Amino acid sequence: MTPEEWESLCDGCGKCCLHRFEDEETREIQFTNVCCRYLDQSVCRCSDYPNRSLNVPDCVSITLEVLEDPYWLPESCAYRLLAEGRPLPEWHPLVSGTGETVIYSGNSVGGRVISELQADNLDHHIIDWIR
After folding, report:
1. Is the pLDDT at 130 greater than 80, yes or no?
2. Where are the domains of the chain?
3. Measured at the alpha carbon of residue 38, what is the angle toward residues 84 and 2, in degrees to the nearest 5?
4. What letter would DSSP give residue 8?
5. Residue 118 gets which letter from DSSP?
6. Pair 122, 40: CB distance under 8 Å
């Protein structure tokens, strides 16, 4: 894949930009409704994508190596789905032809989260994202 094709797999949901907790023994992931300060919620994209790893040292770039064990990615993430041999959902922009289906399907976090700059104790922000 070209870099552009690889990047097009991202559906723009913004879920990977959420703070989360992991139980290291069980590898259970609990997501919050708190996003990285660099997430532009109006488009659910990083506002400084080229410098994301400098701005947030633990921001993960999705590579084939990372996808060898994608358990920590959201269950609806296209990268995870493909790594697990599952198809893209009908709301994914590569299937539907438009990014609006991510919003209409309820899979976008845009407008549904708060910035880490506004959050207090992250334990109070754990949420079960149904989609």
Report:
1. no
2. 3-127
3. 45
4. H
5. T
6. no
Structure tokens at 87: 């198809």
- What share of the chain in percent tops pLDDT 70? 98
Alpha-carbon distance 125 to 23, whole Å? 16
Query: What integer pLDDT is reported at residue 131 of this predicted model?
Result: 53
Cα distances (Å, whole numbers) of residue 55 to 37, 39, 41, 62, 126 = 10, 12, 17, 17, 24
Tokens at residue 128, please? 């079960």
- Mean of all residue pLDDT scores within the chain: 94
- DSSP letter at 51? G
89: CB partners within 8 A, 6+ apart: 76, 81, 95, 105, 107
Residue type, 115: S
pLDDT confidence band for 70 (50 / 70 / 90): very high
- Name the percent of the chain lying above pLDDT 90: 92
Burial tier of 85 (Cβ tally within 10 Å: 0-12, 13-18, 19+): exposed
